[in-house]
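Protocol step 4 of 6: structure prediction from sequence.
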Amino acid sequence: MQDHCIGDSHAGASRASAELEFLKEPIRQGATMRTANSRYRIADVLAGRCPRTTFGVR
């Protein structure tokens, strides 16, 4: 995943690769992970009512 991650969510953040590093172990254990901006409520993220990225294993 990290080989395909170029850039950050906003200039100077350096956050994208750190997020992916954090997500690796839960995904290996079969979890589906969603990331979104913190301004959105968790219920909105889970319901798909806001922009988000979903990671998981098929």
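Step 5 (inspection) to follow. The longest helix spans residues 16-28.
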